[in-house]
Input
Amino acid sequence: MAFYYRMDKLLTFPSGLVKYMFQSSFEQIWETLDKNHVILITDENIFRYYKPLFKDHKTLLVNPGEGAKEISTIERLSKELVSLEATRKTILVGVGGGVITDITGFLASVYMRGISFGFVPTTLLGMVDAAAGGKNGVNLGFNKNMLGTINQPDFILYDTSFLSTLSDDEWSNGFAEIIKYACIFDEALYNELHKNSITTYKNDGDALAMLIERCVDWKNKTVMEDEHEKGVRKLLNFGHTAAHAIEQLYEIPHGKAVGIGMIIASMISVSVTGLEKSITEDIKRLLSLYHLPVKFKFDPKRAMELLRMDKKRNEQLMDYILLDKPGKATVHSLPFEVIENALNAYESEN
Ligand SMILES: NC(=O)c1ccc[n+]([C@@H]2O[C@H](COP(=O)([O-])OP(=O)(O)OC[C@H]3O[C@@H](n4cnc5c(N)ncnc54)[C@H](O)[C@@H]3O)[C@@H](O)[C@H]2O)c1
Ligand SMILES: [Zn+2]
Output
């Protein structure tokens, strides 16, 4: 029987120490932080759902959604910090999904050349991915995360009770990243996910808490080794190369795009690493189980143009994360032609 209890983990990264507070409750932030120095940042949805948590605390509000992740928001919030007389002693705490943790981490890293910050992720995707790892950025028009920093928060507090109000779609988006960790690092988890469903984890708080911590551990293990993504951290981009192109062309949530990207990467793997062909079908089954789409109509030509765009004119190769087998991924330098063929093959199957 699963037995789970609260345990804090103090982790050391090249850019700083982070206290991971798993299985906690939001109110515990006030056990260690001086209320007078804290400024909370959240979005209007979370503020509406959890109003009492923000009562009597200085709170800055952001519009919900990806559109807020722009430099104009950073400028506005910086001015509000000045009005609130925020100093180098101020601690910014982002309470929200990946949009809020990205905004908070970036803002805290540049305001007065850097002040302390912490995160309370409130989406599944935020918990297993966006809040961890120290990368925080905003978009520059269509260019996702073009402006950013690598800087660790002081703490990340996990309170899974926030997930009670999360929409079904957002649960699925979070599971796309969980499936990603299983594919690249953890065959046992890959098998476990096949046996379960979103409902299983919604109904079993211990299983959910263990699942989240397991994914965060995988991410941290990678980031501790390679914070600046020179090597092993690249593996976390499994499914993300094609996903980013699709996300730039169509309004599709990140998790759904990553799911499609993982199918395309596994199709390429079959010819490059010798991944068993049945695994592609297996991954599709897993995505469907967690209500993620396996079919999506997109223009492979335009996607390819975007993929080529950030390469120099005469560069013909691109790093791509492929699977050797479930639980084992490797980085490959692929000719554009191989990627183009896979995009066309995916498109013609749908
Ligand atoms: N920095 C990183 O390493 C990293 C990694 C992955 C993703 N990201 C970024 O994260 C963002 C996506 O994160 P996300 O999926 O959490 O998006 P999000 O922050 O936009 O949240 C999704 C939606 O859920 C709502 N919401 C949040 N918590 C809720 C709750 N508890 N109950 C009800 N509704 C709630 C939000 O208001 C929003 O409408 C993207 O911008 C992506 O680039 C960053
Ligand atoms: Zn992602």
The chain has two domains: 8-165, 168-349.
